[in-house]
What we know:
Elements: H1 2-10, E1 14-21, E2 24-31, E3 36-43, H2 48-63, E4 67-74, H3 80-94, E5 101-106
Parallel strand pairs: 3-4, 4-5
Antiparallel strand pairs: 1-2, 2-3
Amino acid sequence: QMVAQIYCEANDIDISPESNAWRWPVDFKFSRWMDKVIVEIKKDSNDLISWISKQIPTYEKSENVNTSILLIFQITKNGNSINKLKEYETEQNKKWIILPQYIIIDARIHESASHL
Length: 116
């Protein structure tokens, strides 16, 4: 958060951690006068479909936001919830439904290349 705060101050961006959106706080909200982005951070062990289809759109409405990002940390080996999310996204795209953007960060522990 400290690095983000320094970057945001240098670029005239307001960062609001744990901004109250609807019932629960969203992890981060970034904004300028007319541009706002919310960022929700989740582990892949969460119900990602529920977050991307229900929670984030609710946050978007309550915060009057035009852009949102679901930042997903993949910690499980199998990645089942991420695979389900990708399948859900494909189904929704066929119906011309655009989901909020999501970014996957591989946070799994990997064996060092020097040990291979």
